[in-house]
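Example record

One chain of 103 residues, shown exactly as stored in the release files.
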Amino acid sequence: MRFIYSALFGAMLALGSIFLHASLAPFGLILSLLATGVGIWTIGRTWGGRSLRIIASAVWIAIVLRAGFPGASDEYLIEGSAIGISLINGGFLVLVLAVLIPA
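Predicted structure tokens for this chain:
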């Protein structure tokens, strides 16, 4: 069950980051990166174990990267602007830090 909950939590963090990152730049980006880092770290703190943080991080990465590719009608949820690229690159770095910091 913890596996499923951590995957769902990572998915919810990713969706929140996708919809929040472009609002009120740069504060939306900062808030989404901060929420992602704290959320992933909290998974390890709550349920214990780095493996659950890695699962949630993998789900986050998969969803955010998919949002950066064009959809069925050539729409992008994450644009190729400085804010969008910063979400993908900064998010990856935040996830690495959140997984490596001991809970």
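Notes: The chain has a mean pLDDT of 94.
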